[in-house]
Amino acid sequence: MARVKTRYSRFCFLFCIAPMMIPFQSFMLTLVNVATTLHINGKIWGLAIIYWGLGAPMSIFLYQGFAKGIPLELEESALIDGCNQFQLFTRIIFPMLKSCTATVTIINVMWIWNDFLLPLLMLGGRKSSKTLQLAAYSFMGQYKMEWQNIMSAAILIIIPALILYLIFQKSIIKGVVAGAVKG
Predict the structure, then answer these.
(1) Fewer CB within 10 Å, N or C, the chain?
(2) Confidence band, pLDDT 50/70/90 cuts, at residue 143
(3) Cα–Cα distance between 32 and 28 in angstroms, integer?
(4) What is the pLDDT of residues 46-68, one digit of tens each?
């Protein structure tokens, strides 16, 4: 979509990113009804499908913006040197999108990891499948607050986010610096 300049590609791009403009709260009950009709409500893989659909517009928007910045001359020279389209993408384009891939990964993983509302709607109070946030929420009630369990769950929830940050720390700093300096 970043390279082809037709009105159909522009329409396709706008169609893909348009869901970003609709707040989740405006369609969450309809989403739960559709998930119930499709028999994916209450299942972890059903939740994963919904996360994929909700996260795709932002990812497409970011990748398209980064791909526009890649010079066309690189693609042309690779094609002249004998690369086919698959090799062009895997050996030239995708490695140049490394910082974008790190950004998309961090944004989506942190959003999914910290989400509370969608798992609560999709998984509900089922004991067989819960996220850590829902498990921590189960320690709170109208007449009880198990603070020792809540704090332990909070530490368990924070540890993966901290590990993810430590792994992608260089990419995060590189992306911030690349966006701050022009040239």
Answers:
(1) C
(2) confident
(3) 6
(4) 999 999 999 999 999 888 888 88
